[in-house]
Design a protein that fits this description.
By secondary structure, the chain is of the alpha+beta class. The chain is 37% helix and 25% strand. A hairpin with a 5-residue loop joins strand 13 and strand 14 (250-253).
Length: 830
């Protein structure tokens, strides 16, 4: 493709005809000129630069207003010396003449004669330029020339393809030289345009293409001119032009073959075209050669794959004509256009259309395509839209937008106005179904142009009935929650990130004495006493930083000046469950009364602890002094027992035993103090060592213990259990009592038994035996603390204690005290 001239340039050489064509001479070339918006200015520039004796005929097809007929010929006469005629039906085309189509007809040509036809529409749109160009190509063949000047739309785009298929020539005004360029750009996008130039430069290129005026038929000069035109066409064409002999050998290759196929013309001339063909396309090519050989001057069209010099396969659109009888050619002329990129684009377009169709057909949203002009004619509707609206596509297509909603809906009118101004719009509207029912919907709509340049609108419709219902439910829930907050017994407050109060319920009004309407909008600081305000606000800031309050005490100032202590819980509110807090909600509990009670209790506890300390001091003093006195008394009692005889000796022994029992009472009291005052800290203790040491304290008693080296979890008070149990058995078992200590390991626990052959314990006494101050031994002897201490210590070590008959069912044959201890971790018995 070539742009040989720009605006204002003058051709270096302008070929003038040697003589004008005689009146009534048929034209050497017939030139069809299509123009639309802005076309009059372009026609002026074109005709004023065109000589009146070019030997060509010019037929102008425009989009004229039918209400203003007959004006164009008069206007065009100002720009040219050639005759200008408005076409009448059956008018013969002559050289050096301008013809203009009437405003109310389509135009065709047959055997050089013009015919008027009723206007036709393609998909509702008139395309008079396309219609004439196709007719011109069929009638004039390679002597047809198509020129497109300024205009909108795409009229002429399909017509120039017919011109090129018949080996004619196509010229287009440079789009940069006009405001109305859509028609030009549409044609250029086909890749079928031979020359692009400003309107005033097109005549020079046309004359160079045509050569000079056609000489008399049969003359050598005519042949030379014909060959010159053919050479100019082939060497400047962007298409690949080949001339083949009847068997497919290449006789000529245009220079464009280098750019298109990577070969130089010299590399191809003399070789067979079949060597460049894809193997799968050879039958098609052979058939085309046979057809062309049998039908001279008839076009043969096919789509084949050529091998590029790189080895890649390119797809070409091929037009072949057998011109062996033409002296300037004498061969099969092949015009090949590389359509590889177009095929790829078509494939992408096909995929895109398939994707759009898949989306269109399967979208859950309704999609409607309309003509935005007039009543908004519906052009297409997807299945979802049909289901949503209750129509079939056949029923709804062709109807206006009125079937979807009320024409007077102000929201609809506002949406259409916004779309007209901005190209797109969105709104919530009330839609109407076929059966007359309605539903709320959200519609997004936008304007676009289709492949023919027509403005269209797409509308995406979503049924928002469920969303509206959810919004209503949410509104109801919100009202419920607001009432719940307002009427809750607990004080509830909400503040925003700027620490401004946004909610303040009635319980908070009672707590502070401040009305909600006064508190809402105020800053949070008004709630805190001045003395603790900074500390309270710091806690609020930490809460906003995602430090949730959990039972935090903050003093609140009452309007009267009194201060209430409030226990708070808080949580941040975020829009999506995370991120920056939108607000903080806090719930309080007035604990002023409880705090006062706690303070009073704390004071009482302090006094009790002080009394306890004093009592322990007195007890320590008394215990120490009594123990010292008992030690002295025991010493004198021992002397009396040694020196006395008879009843005096007996009384001395009883005195000594009483003193010893007093010492035992003091020991038990001391043990109870340790049990209640010392914290539990258990550790492995050798049970065998404790038992053996306690057995050793009674050298005159009959105690059987086999020994079992095991450690239990206990502390330093463990020996007190055995001191009480073995001591009681010795003291109350009577003369000749036998005592047995058994140790048995059971699944991580240790069962200890202390058995005696004494008088035993009655069943009615057993259940009370381990209670404090209960005397369970024979004849009511004992102070009632020893077995209570045993139970307390066993439970301290995680065990249980009980008393059984040594011989089951025979209480009088002795007692058996059994208790469980926890085996220390990592110890094994033997």
């Amino acid at each position: 493709m070539e742009k040989p001239l720009t605006s204002g340039e003058t051709p270096e050489e302008e070929t003038k005809p040697e003589q004008a064509a005689p009146p009534g001479t048929p034209p050497d070339f017939t030139v069809g000129i299509g123009a639309s918006a802005g076309g009059l200015d372009a026609l002026e520039k074109f005709l004023t630069h065109l000589p009146p004796d070019s030997g060509m005929a010019f037929i102008i097809v425009t989009h004229m207003d039918p209400s203003r007929p007959g004006m164009m010929p008069e206007i065009l006469m100002r720009f040219t010396e050639m005759p200008v005629h408005e076409v009448s039906d059956g008018m013969t085309v002559r050289a050096d003449t301008v013809y203009i189509i009437p405003s109310d007809a389509d135009l065709s040509i047959m055997n050089g004669t013009l015919f008027l036809n009723p206007p036709e529409k393609t998909r509702g749109v008139r395309m008079p330029i396309d219609s004439f160009f196709r007719s011109l190509a069929d009638d004039q063949g390679h002597r047809a020339v198509a020129i497109l000047l300024s205009g909108m739309g795409s009229d002429g785009t399909f017509g120039i393809r017919a011109i090129k298929e018949h080996l004619g020539m196509v010229m287009v005004q440079d789009p940069a030289t006009t405001t109305f360029k859509a028609m030009l750009e549409s044609a250029i996008a086909t890749g079928m345009v031979d020359f692009i130039a400003p309107a005033e430069a097109l005549p020079d290129r046309l004359l160079k293409y045509a050569g000079t005026a056609v000489s008399a038929p049969g003359s050598g000069e005519a042949l030379r001119k014909s060959e010159e035109r053919f050479r100019l066409l082939t060497e400047n064409a962007s298409d690949v032009i080949l001339i083949l002999d009847p068997v497919g050998s290449i006789l000529y290759a245009s220079p464009s073959v280098k750019q298109a196929g990577g070969f130089t013309p010299e590399e191809l001339i003399g070789s067979s075209i079949l060597k460049l063909m894809h193997p799968d396309d050879l039958p098609l090519v052979m058939n085309a050669l046979s057809t062309a050989a049998a039908h001279p001057k008839e076009r043969v069209t096919l789509e084949v794959r050529f091998r590029h010099s790189s080895g890649d396969w390119l797809t070409f659109d091929v037009i072949g004509v057998n011109l062996q009888e033409e002296p300037a050619v004498r061969g099969f002329v092949v015009n090949a256009r590389d359509i590889t990129e177009r095929k790829r684009a078509e494939e992408k377009l096909r995929e895109s259309e398939e994707q759009f169709r898949a989306i269109f057909d399967n979208s859950s949203d309704g999609i409607v395509l309309t003509d935005p002009q007039g009543g908004g004619e519906i052009l297409s509707a997807n299945p979802a839209a049909c289901r949503m609206l209750g129509w079939t596509e056949e029923e709804i297509v062709g109807r206006g937008r009125d079937v979807l909603f009320d024409r007077g809906d102000p929201d609809l009118l506002a949406l259409i106005d916004e779309r007209r101004r901005t190209g797109s719009a969105r709104a919530e509207l009330t839609f109407r179904r076929k059966d007359g029912t309605s539903f709320p919907g959200e519609m997004s709509t936008a304007l676009f142009r289709d492949v023919r340049g027509k403005e269209r609108a797409i509308a995406i419709i979503r049924d928002i009935t469920e969303r509206r219902r959810a919004e209503d439910d949410l509104r109801t829930t919100k009202e419920y929650l607001e009432n719940l907050i307002d009427y809750a017994n607990a004080p509830i407050i909400v503040w925003n990130p700027e620490f401004v109060i946004t909610r303040f319920n009635r319980a908070f009004e009672s707590l502070t004495g401040i009305p909600a309407e006064e508190a809402v909008g105020a800053r949070l600081e008004i709630l805190f006493p001045e003395v603790s305000r900074n500390a309270s606000m710091e806690m609020v800031r930490r809460a906003m930083a995602d430090e949730m309050w959990d039972a935090v005490e903050i003093p609140i100032l009452h309007r009267s000046g009194s201060v209430r202590t409030v226990l708070w819980n808080s949580a941040n509110i975020t829009g999506n469950g995370r991120g920056t807090p939108l607000a903080t909600i806090a719930q309080g509990q007035d604990i002023t009364g409880r705090k006062q009670a706690e303070e009073e209790r704390a004071a009482l506890t302090g006094r009790l602890e002080e009394a306890h300390r004093e009592a322990n001091l007195y007890l320590d003093i008394i215990t120490h002094d009594i123990r010292n006195a008992n030690n002295v008394s025991t010493m004198y009692a021992d002397l009396m027992v040694d020196l006395a005889e008879g009843d005096l000796k007996t009384y001395a022994e009883k005195l000594r035993n009483s003193i010893l029992r007093g010492n035992g009472i003091l020991r038990n009291v001391a043990t109870l103090r340790r049990v209640h005052e010392e914290s539990v800290s258990l550790a492995p203790v050798s049970l065998d060592a404790v038992i053996r040491e306690e057995v050793g304290n009674y050298p005159g008693a009959s105690i059987r213990y086999d020994g079992r080296p095991v450690e239990v979890s206990a502390d330093s008070l463990l020996p007190m259990i055995f001191a009480n149990l073995i001591g009681n058995a010795v003291k109350f078992g009577g003369a000749g009592v036998e005592i047995t200590v058994r140790v048995e390991e059971r699944d991580g626990e240790v069962l200890v038994s202390v058995e005696d052959t004494g008088p035993g314990i009655p069943d009615e006494v057993k259940r009370l035996l381990f209670q404090r101050f209960e005397r369970g031994m024979a004849r009511g002897r004992g102070e009632g603390l020893g077995l209570y201490i045993v139970r307390t210590l066993v439970e301290r070590y995680g065990g249980k204690v009980r008393v059984d008959d040594r011989v089951p069912g025979h209480p009088g044959e002795g007692a058996a005290f059994r208790f469980m201890l926890q085996k220390a971790n990592g110890t094994e018995g033997t």
